């Protein structure tokens, strides 16, 4: 996922979380709002309780790759924030990717 497609500022995270629509599954929570830039952006967040820094960085890299494979940033109408939940650790990469795909489809960030 390119840096121009990431939400990076804390204020933007808070705006999307507080004003956005919420979608939930066992591994993820997704908040979406209409996009403000030319291309859609996605931010990834997870609590410190999920694991050590090495584990959290691994999970963020995995989710970035999932988003890069699933989302067409130029045609997507929304910005989003993905928050990982404790259920993420229990499933493998393929199951988590499938779960995220269903969640993005429910949020209308995907068109299949």
Helical content (DSSP H or I, runs of 4+): 25-40%
Q: What is the average of the pLDDT values?
A: 91
Shape, principal axes of CA atoms? globular
Q: Order of SSEs, N→C?
A: HEEEHEH
Low-pLDDT stretches: none
Structural class: alpha+beta
Query: What proportion of the residues form beta strands (DSSP E)?
Result: 15-25%
Number of helices: 3
How many E strands? Answer: 4
Task: Please sum up the structure shown.
With 112 residues, this protein is an alpha+beta fold. It is built from three helices and four strands, in the order αβββαβα.
Task: Please describe what this structure looks like.
This protein is an alpha+beta fold. 38% of the residues lie in helices and 20% in strands. β1 and β2 (28-34) form a beta hairpin. α2 (53-70) packs across α3. The longest helix is centred in the middle third of the chain and has 18 residues, at 53-70.
């Amino acid at each position: 996922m390119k840096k121009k497609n990431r939400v990076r500022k804390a204020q933007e995270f808070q705006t999307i979380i507080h004003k956005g629509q919420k979608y939930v599954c066992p591994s993820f929570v997704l908040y979406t709002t209409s996009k403000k830039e030319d291309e859609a952006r996605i931010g990834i967040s997870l609590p410190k309780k999920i694991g050590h820094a090495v584990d959290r960085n691994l999970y963020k890299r995995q989710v970035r790759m999932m988003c890069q494979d699933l989302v067409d940033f130029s045609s997507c109408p929304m910005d989003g924030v993905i928050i990982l939940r404790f259920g993420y650790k229990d499933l493998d990469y393929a199951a988590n990717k499938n779960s995220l795909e269903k969640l993005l489809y429910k949020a209308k960030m995907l068109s299949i």
